[in-house]
Amino acid sequence: MTARAKHYEKMYEMFEASISKRVDCGKMCAPLNGGTPVCCTTDHAVPIVTTGEWRHLKTISEAWKKYKPNDKAGRKIVDDLHEDCRAIECKIAPYCDRVSRTLACRAFPFFPYFTKEEELVGLSYYWTFDDRCWVISNLQVVEQDFVKEMIETYEYLFKKDRDEKEAMVDQSKSMRKVFSKKGKVIPIIGRDGGYYKILPKTKGAIVPAKLSDFGPTGPFVSDEAYHKAIKEEGGDPTGHSLKDAEA
């Protein structure tokens, strides 16, 4: 069984909360990506939707089009798609309204994290974006409304589509494997709003954590690192500061 257009209509209504009402995180990562938020460009990730979601999207927005690859990597993404999936691209990024966003866009950079026992305990993130996505280094801005709505929406989805649940179970398993190999702590935002962590070499055991256990990474560790990264991307760091998000 797969989720149909009417199910995605309900899910979009269920999941309207933004990550933060205080900070526009896109403005923090955009200077590292030619002025466009990392999550809004197919240079970093190609949005994938099911046919059910694609049908619903087309009824509510003209913001999307089918993705047409222009390189080998893009063609492989399209060639490897499940028959029930479509690769798409936003035509109005980064100026879209939340109504037009896919389920994955609303959730990015987070995914539902499952334990080895397949219990959904909260949210973690797609770690390959930790050098570009500001939010990953600033979990304190993630609001409880967002966490609650995302988890409830995905639980609804999993009831309609077992494959979607399996994909997230596999994603969680991959994260444990990668982070354990690197000796890194896995951060979890619990469904109760608290913070938790999984220490490496502990077989996935979850323990309470503090925000200070995670800390910033990559270009977000300091203004100096941030400005250097902007310059390396060919941008002008003038007027950009990580402190802007503290206001």
Summarize the helices and strands and which ones pair or pack.
Elements: H1 5-14, H2 25-29, E1 48-50, H3 51-60, E2 64-66, H4 72-79, E3 85-90, H5 103-107, E4 110-114, E5 120-125, H6 144-160, H7 162-182, E6 186-190, E7 195-198, E8 206-208, H8 223-232
Antiparallel strand pairs: 1-3, 2-3, 4-5, 5-6, 6-7, 7-8
Helix pairs in contact: 1-3, 1-6, 6-7
Please write the string of helix (H) and strand (E) elements. HHEHEHEHEEHHEEEH
Beta content? 5-15%
Percent helix: 25-40%
Number of domains: 1
List low-pLDDT spans: none
Rg from alpha-carbon coordinates = 18 Å
Number of strands: 8
Shape: globular
Which sequence of strands runs across the widest sheet? 4-5-6-7-8
Mean pLDDT: 93
First-last Cα distance: 46 Å
Task: Quickly count the helices.
Answer: 8
Largest sheet: 5 strands, antiparallel
Which structural class should the secondary elements be placed in? alpha+beta
Detailed description of the structure:
This protein has helices at 5-14, 25-29, 51-60, 72-79, 103-107, 144-160, 162-182, 223-232, and strands at 48-50, 64-66, 85-90, 110-114, 120-125, 186-190, 195-198, 206-208. It is an alpha+beta fold. The strands form 2 sheets. The chain has a 5-stranded antiparallel β-sheet, with helices on both faces. The chain is globular. The model has no long low-confidence stretch (mean pLDDT 93).
